[in-house]
Task: structure prediction
Amino acid sequence: MNQLIKILEGIGSTLQLLVRSASYLPSLPRQFGRFVEQCYLIGYTTLPIVAILSFFIGSVLALQAGYSMQNFGAKQLIGALVGLSMARELGPVMVAILLAGRVGSAIAAELASMKVYQEIDALVTMNIPPARMLVMPRLVAVLVMVPVLAIIANLVGWFGGAIICSSTSFIGIEPTTYFATMRQNMEFKDVLNGLIKAEIFGFFVVLVCCNIGLNTRGGPREIGAAVTRAVVVSLILILVLDYFVTKALM
Amino acid sequence: MNNLQQTARVGLFFLLGLALIWVTFETLNGGKILKDEGYAITAGFESLKELKQGDEVRMAGVRIGEVQSTRLAGRRAEAILRIDPMVTIKSDATASIVTAGLIGTNYIGIDLGTAGVPDLVPREKTRSPRGFFSRILPFLQPEPEPIAEIQTKTAADLNSIMAQIGALGEKLESSLGSLGTAFAGDGKNPGLIQKIDGLVTDNREKLTATMTNIREITDKVNKGEGTLGRLISDPKLHDELVATLNEIKAGATEAKGFIANAQSIIDHVKQGKGAIGTLVFDEKIGDDIRSSVATLRTISDKISRGEGTLGKLLNDDSLFRDTQAIMKKADRALDGFDDTGPITAVGVVYRGLF
Amino acid sequence: MPTPEAHPASSSDPAAAAPAAAQAVGVSIENLSKQFGTFEVLKNVTFAVEPEEIFVLMGPSGSGKSVLLKHIVGLELPTSGCVTVDGRDAAAEDTREHVRMALVFQSGALFNSLSVFDNLALYPREHRVANAAGIREKVMRALQILSLENAAQKFPSELSGGMKKRVAIARALVMEPQLMLYDEPTSELDPVMSATISEIIATLKDEYHVTSLVVSHDRELALNIAHRVGILMGGSLVVVGTPSELKASKDPRVAEFLNPKIDLKNPRFKKLET
Ligand SMILES: Nc1ncnc2c1ncn2[C@@H]1O[C@H](COP(=O)(O)OP(=O)(O)O)[C@@H](O)[C@H]1O
Ligand SMILES: [Mg+2]
Result:
């Protein structure tokens, strides 16, 4: 019962934070510097790990598909399978999980320590709402950067699959065939679908991590606890949202 | 790192992302962003069967658009077809739902219509001009509204055709079985029976059937009753069969892309090996069947008249053997078609022929 | 004392940045009680601070002084009773829009990710008090007053405890608030710097209209610059009076608190044991 109330409290305060941050949107031009800094942290510095991970996910996907599909003689369809899986599901979910682990945890840690060391209180007494200065630029930055990360994840994953397909002897699908079947069986709609999913996941990951950071209470020990909670809640949220968003976009 | 550098990197990064999204869009949607969408027409059917949104629209086999949406309109089902710009359709052209490929891919086939007949939609109306915003943001472009309706016809259902072919095979086979009875009863030339391959031996039981049986059948054939009879006497039905078989041919061609093995089957079929090969690829199939059956009729007529024709027939054993071999193979193939339908057609062809 | 004009600190109204016209505000605390769980930190505290007054709040550590200050800036909500600033409920969010308050946190509460200069410049920048050059001038002047010019580009983690305290005070000064709250501003400081801080607090109201509420154990500061002194013990206000009244107080707790005798023959902790 207590747990349930806590969850509801969390949902409520998150939505409240969302509304507040949205109301500070007009101050974005004044906070352009902060926005760019957050873009840098969320997008630019996350790129390498996104690229590495999506390359291997694409490769493994192709490998597994090649292995299982050779029995059905449907190997030619690997391109379509890797393309669709990356674009519609794995790309967005992977980007969101990396954001949760790399960006969400950092946000939670930073805001939690600001809270614990009374920096947030100082901002409040200075009449500088934390939602305006700390949350809104991050939310806008994640909205701007996630599509970039997601499209790169897709493309790198596709190429990873193509390389594996042509270099693995028991698959032996040439890149031209691989991409031809991908093009035949995919539409930009599928990619767009994935980008929208990534956008929604990324946005809520950052929002939830901000909220958990800002609601930290107690001493320095709580900073660690807040980071753990932020990542766990983000991961659960991603997978739950994934189901509903996928369904809604079908 | 100073702020300017950071801003520059973020800016570049963002532009890179936009460029990649653009490239993906161009690649997957074939640069549709700058082309216009063309126009839309409706096609009404009793049932759309397996047809769904996004399926192709082809004219004489060439892709000219796709199924934009499907809907129920009163007592019929309607497909809205989006047709590429500058493609005109004759007003007497008809659309039909065609099943192609082995996994049941459907498309709408539109025939060329008659030359000289006015177009269903005049050429100048085949383009949908784009607004400024939908040029930049292609998602804003509304789908074209249907502006005309095309006539439709229900394409021959492959399943029922196949069932008919199966029945045909059975009838031919039992006729031949009866002929076999004659040989066995005669016993003048036992060497012949050894020459006849397995089927006849297997059907020895049938060989005990009375001559009445075969007389009935041949009578029916003469009177144009039954599938075989109709096939022989009704050229329209024959034409339909040929059309259907051409569709099978299209399906078989498509199969190449899906199953590597299918290629060799198709090759085999193309070489005219096996019954289906003959049926599918021999333009003169009708004539062949007709002449085979005519010969058959002559034979059985003679048999029924009790003339001493068995000797002649024995001399003509090459004809008999050929006919029977074909029928045996066809029967095996068609048996499969009969109950599994076109979905596994190639698999059945494979089993039947090899 | 209500101020009729809308206050410039409102972020939504950056054009109205005219701090010089601001009036000092009064604080009134009525029957304030605060509980954390079952632990009662403040018990029925009532007192008022007049505009432009310097009120020093003393009391043993753990008596609830910091908690009281947080109530005034609206960071804590009363369990019962109420706190009003300039006639507005301190717990209401828009009070901070109308009344400019600065709190010098006991721990400093500097922004660790910002340099000292940026810590000081944050408020004027966010509220567009002046242009970049004007802000720079204000910030440098505040740093100068507290002998921190050389620390401008340092980060809080590179500062000593006393320096952090001074930066926190400088940051509050830059805000030019109507109500200034200090939480132990002179602890951790050497005697000279303590005296300097006392002078700053005392003379600030000569520059502009400001009400000061100082929480401190510093007897020198309290008795020299305070208009009135209150002593909080165990969550209750035991006495409020002018420094001379306090010195003359017969209350043994007050006398003991203001003039504790270091008695090595008979130490207090031993008394506790018996
Ligand atoms: N957030 C809090 N939760 C629980 N107890 C608190 C909290 N803040 C302060 N306290 C308790 O309230 C009492 C008064 O604290 P404080 O006002 O900081 O003392 P001081 O007078 O030394 O500034 C202390 O006993 C402290 O433990
Ligand atoms: Mg304290």
The pocket of magnesium ion (ligand 2) is lined by residues C 65-66, 106, 183 (CB under 6 Å). DSSP finds ten helices and ten strands in chain C. Chains C and B do not touch (no CB pair under 8 Å). Confidence is low (pLDDT under 50) at residues 1-20 of chain C.
